[in-house]
Amino acid sequence: MNDLLKQLTEAVGVSGAEKEVRLLIRDLIADHVDEWSVDTMGNLTATKRGTGDYDMRVLVDAHMDEVGLLITDIDSSGMLRFTNVGGFDDRALLGKVVQVGPHKVTGVIGARAIHLLKRGEYSKVVRIDAMRIDIGAKNKEAASSSVKVGDYAAFVTEYEELDGGRTAIGKAFDNRAGCAALIELLRGERYPFDLVAAFTVQEEVGLRGAKIAAFNARADAALVLECTPAFDLPKEQDRSPNVALGKGVSVYVMDARTIQDPRLVAHIMATGDSQGIPYQVRQPGGGGTNTGAIQRAGAGIPAATLAVPGRYAHTPTMMISLDDYDNIVRLADATLRTLTPDTFRRD
Amino acid sequence: MNDLIRSLVEAYGPSGFEDGVRDLIRPLIEPHADEVTVDALGNLIARKRATTGEANPLKVMIAAHMDEIGIMASHITEKGFLRFTNIGGVGSHTLLGGRVRFADGTLGIIGVDRMEDRNSIHPLNKHFIDVGATSRENCPVRVGDAAHFVRPFEARGRHLTAKSMDDRIGCAVAIEALRRLPADVSHDLYFVFSVQEEVGTRGAEAAANGIMPDVSIALDVTLTGDVPESRPMDVRLGAGPAIKVKDSGMIAHAGLVRLMRRRAEEAGIDYQLEVLEGGTTDARPMQLAGPGSVAGCISIPCRYVHTPSETVDASDVEGAVALLVTLLSADMEL
């Protein structure tokens, strides 16, 4: 059992309310870094000083936040109205168990039983503004004693390993998988340069935390660790999956927010090839990660992204391959250990 | 100037892969600048220091972007055809039968899936590129490789046509202005040949944060309203460079617009005023960088923007150079 992934994914940290995850990570890294601090946004930044071989600062980012819900109103019957924090397919919500507020009050996103649906209602999608969270309260007063407007809600999904321990399901692999990988890097030997680890907030609502973390990091280069949606279910046409589970670390070249630094991408691929670490080029096109904010911070930072492919992103349960997870730790570590100022020479 | 323009517009440089254009421009500007640097994102920055005037000269940033729109391979089929995604604003109505070239020289022809309805435009993902391969294994292109559109430069009298006037013509104006400026200037001038404009003015944002200019001037193309059934727009080819008043991402500093107009009138340069309803330029991130800067844009009117036959008028280009030189050579009372 990967205890790190279990602990991290079962912790709750919806965008804007990442404290529980931040405290957990702080305790997991405190003995392995030279200093750590928390900035105005809530980003946890830690420095692991280098051996002194290169005068260089490298930022490694993983966002702590997960998508979730926010309570907007408690109606007279004690039902909770809510809105989304981060992007959802409304169809993924009905019938799911959630934990609400700092006291983790259990509730369920109620759905009308199929017995009570009229013909024609089956084919309609229920929209988020018509849904309610039911915490079993008799009325508004009873509900208000344990929950208040502005409380966040997260899904409840226990971490489990399948397929003889090589596949895992759980919530929030996007991006606790990246956080776990970054923690493993911090627990290793010193790098030839100063490593600045940023566990960032509010990625899911628009790369907000990373913008500040990158501005403050004054880094010469950056690597972003992520979990990217895998669309690898069988398809009829000859169209590649964007990335597939178990086929290796997903390497970005271009997405909707970035063209990744070609020198860093070439270095990552050369490292994977020479060390026999499997990777796959993520299909260029849509999507976006903290790299979009980091690359443009200050006077610009050369940046690239590595990701663990994950099925069913932004639903209560994601699935990843633990081989891919092990490989992102290996590839990120090997990429950093062989990174030098010469990697960024332009001639 | 046509030889300079030809070499610039035919160079390979889709957004993010501007190295070739940078290598071309660098030796052309080095003799005219005090220092030339390349920043973290690849922006080429030529600085010409103030030698006369006040102790604290104005920092003036002039930006023209080196990158051009293009495509990137996203999938290789079993038979060796490429599917692709756009780099920047590529209209799928401009693709069929077009040609692209990859960094290694591989030429590709753009085809389209069988058309059931010839009256509709197929979306980008129904197009493919044929590079002459017969299988995934012998395909010379890998997923993630970028290509630009191919079309030779043509001069028809004053009309100049090429696939990347946007914005190599701005680069040409900047290079020519740098050559013509007097040896001694009273402002600190930063000529920036920027990267990644077509994907969201990313390069100029970082460059401006590094330079922190007081005054910013973008050099870029703008649309025209002078072809049949065009959207009404009071800019036309051959009527002089356009002084931008507003586009959808920036309202130019009114004082800078007034100053540009005054300098043009004093020097007898024909000009037009531009209000562009869609699109923006590097002037936007420069205006908003750091504590903000006084920003404006000198535009070169251009027909058929983001097609393989972008067309400008040589006299507008000359006028843009003259306007920029006179603006940068004199005092800037804003």
Brief digest:
Chain A is of the alpha+beta class. Helix content of chain A is 24%, strand content 25%. Chain A has helices spanning 3-10, 19-29, 140-144, 173-186, 208-217, 262-275, 291-294, 322-337, and strands at 35-38, 44-48, 57-63, 68-74, 80-85, 97-100, 105-109, 133-134, 152-155, 160-162, 167-170, 194-200, 221-229, 249-251, 279-281, 303-311, 318-321.
Describe this protein's structure:
The complex is a heterodimer of chains A (347) and B (334). Chain A is α+β, with helices and mostly antiparallel strands and 347 residues long. Chain A has two domains: 3-66 and 171-344, 3-Layer(aba) Sandwich (Aminopeptidase), CATH 3.40.630.10; 68-155, Elongation Factor Tu (Ef-tu), domain 3 (Beta Barrel). Chain A is 24% helix and 25% strand. Chain A contains eight helices and 17 strands. Chain A has helices spanning 3-10, 19-29, 140-144, 173-186, 208-217, 262-275, 291-294, 322-337; strands at 35-38, 44-48, 57-63, 68-74, 80-85, 97-100, 105-109, 133-134, 152-155, 160-162, 167-170, 194-200, 221-229, 249-251, 279-281, 303-311, 318-321. In chain A, strands 1, 2, 3, 10, 11, 12, 13, 14, 15, 16 and 17 form an eleven-stranded mixed sheet that branches. A six-stranded antiparallel sheet of chain A has the order 5-4-9-6-7-8. In chain A, strand 6 (97-100) and strand 7 (105-109) form a beta hairpin. Chain A is globular, with a radius of gyration of 21 Å. Chain B has two domains: 2-68 and 163-329, Aminopeptidase, CATH 3.40.630.10; 70-149, Elongation Factor Tu (Ef-tu), domain 3 (Beta Barrel), CATH 2.40.30.40. Chain B has an eight-stranded mixed sheet with strand order 1-2-12-3-13-16-14-15, with helices on both faces. Chain B has a six-stranded antiparallel sheet with strand order 5-4-9-6-7-8, with no helix packed on it. In chain B, strands 10-11-17 form a three-stranded antiparallel sheet. In chain B, a hairpin with a 2-residue loop joins strand 10 and strand 11 (159-162). Classes of the chains: A alpha+beta (347), B alpha+beta (334). The interface between A and B is medium-sized, with 24 and 34 residues.
